[in-house]
Amino acid sequence: MNELSVAGLSRLCLHTITTKPWGIEEAARNYSAGGVKGITVWRDALHDRNIKKTGDMLRQEGLQIVSLCRGGFFPSCQPEKRRAAIDDNRRAVEEAFELGTDKIVLVCGADPAQPLEDSRKQIYDGIAAIIPEAGAAGIRLAIEPLHPMYADTRSAINTLAQANDLAEKLNSPWVGVAVDVYHLWWDPALESEIERCGKNSSLLAFHICDWKSPTTDFLNDRGLMGEGCIPLRKIRSWVEEAGFRGFIEVEIFSNEYWKTDQSGFLKRIIEAYIKYA
Ligand code: ZN
Q1: Distance from the CA of 207 to the center of ligand 1, in angstroms?
Q2: Ligand 1 mean position to 57 CA, how many Å?
Q3: DSSP 8-class letter at 113
Q4: Most exposed: 24, 38, 50, 256, by fewest CB within 10 Å?
Q5: What is the pTM of this model?
Q6: Going residue by residue through the chain (277 aa), what tens digit of pLDDT does each one get?
Q7: What separation in Å is there between the alpha carbon of 73 and the centre of ligand 1?
């Protein structure tokens, strides 16, 4: 790789789930060797590990720990499940602190057994409940709206407007939003809503991949940048006009790519990032 392209990677972050077959040590070594500068750690990658030592290992590899993914899943029609979810989010705040990151991505959740409005109210209550712990630990909570196809079980927050409304209502310096192009590319209000969270200084994260057409699996068939129909450069320009200067995070769930040699896949990610992101 030439020097120019390595310099061009200064804002590139990978989500550990993108290279799911790799354990976190192998991922860290390979990301670092490839010139990647940031890592977002999925909680499953920390299973049965000493979290503080894992954070030290990542920093020794020269990686900035951009965020912990993910908290959330607050709603349930059963009160004991809602309490358990809040406890789990408090654990996520502790894990993020031990890991040494200052951000948690929230996939807010939904319960198909109740109306979306009820789920949204419980999401508000759940986030409000953990703000004190998050603030004490210096962790910001990024509400990530999910594509409406996930409104039944994964998130009742489906547009950036809803995420911005929720963040404004919570009115805390510890709460903001995450923009993921996979979930939001179709939204005619995207540009104005990105501008809105920029004005509020609440744009905390930017996730990229592509929407393959046709898509064969609505969870695990995300594309590499440039492989689908998302106007990535245009959305990135809106995000940057809104003042965002953080990492550009590659988050690809793909049964197809997980089956391939991950070193070759990493190389393709870096090439696609340079060419299309
Ligand atoms: Zn995302």
Answers
A1: 5
A2: 24
A3: T
A4: 50
A5: 0.97
A6: 454 456 689 999 999 999 999 999 999 999 999 999 999 999 999 999 999 999 999 999 999 999 999 999 999 999 999 999 999 999 999 999 999 999 999 999 999 999 999 999 999 999 999 999 999 999 999 999 999 999 999 999 999 999 999 999 999 999 999 999 999 999 999 999 999 999 999 999 999 999 999 999 999 999 999 999 999 999 999 999 999 999 999 999 999 999 999 999 999 999 999 999 9
A7: 14
**Helix (H) / strand (E) containing 142:** strand 140-143
Instruction: Supply 230's token pair.
Output: 């998302």
Cα(166) to ligand 1 centroid in Å equals: 18
| DSSP three-state, residue 158 | coil
**∠ CA(230), CA(234), CA(239), 5° rounding?**
110
Maximal C-alpha separation, the chain: 56
